[in-house]
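Batch manifest, entry 17 of 40.
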Amino acid sequence: MEKILIIGANGKTGRLLAEQLSAHPYYLPVAMIRDRSQQSFFEQMGVKTVIGDLEKDFSDAFEGIDKVIFAAGSGSKTGKEKTKLVDALGAIKSIDLALNHQVKKYVMLSSRGAENAEKADESMQHYLLAKKEADEYLKSSGLPYAIVRPGKLTNGPYTGKIKAAPIFNEKGEISRADVAAVLVHMLDPSLEGLQVFEILGGKVDIPEAIHLFLKSGQPVV
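Output type: structure tokens
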């Protein structure tokens, strides 16, 4: 089984990732958390934890890791300095560590709007610029990667269905449970094609939607 490091494991999407990966036949999740008070949730699922803070040295978290899912985020309402530390510099440090430990694949949870962050509203721009900086660094790193950019996140139920496109010209939302399932699916080493895309809630099963998008590069709705 492959060990999957979840960075940002104690967030809402991170916890769903831990649940889904713990039930997966081929993956063994390792939840990176900032302090021991967050351990109990993961221990109840039998998920191993490792202490790591994106603003400090977290190199120990990468020992024995095969693949990484980066699901951390300071949030769009966080101050510019904190956003830069977590969403840009923290992500970049994790990419460097992934390279040093020869990680097989790095899956990034990004955000819609990151592609054109410079054009974003002022309230969101610092957040999206940080996401874009991390995305671009990952693209140039040489690591096998996937960058997933979901629409507005909800706490709705898992549907297993999405739509995917390079960039959507419409508003939309998607449940965190479906986002987590897409991130897990992107760990698959057999996937080929440009693995940078946006996702929204849709009507096509996740594996089929991703397969069709990666094959054609065209929107799957």
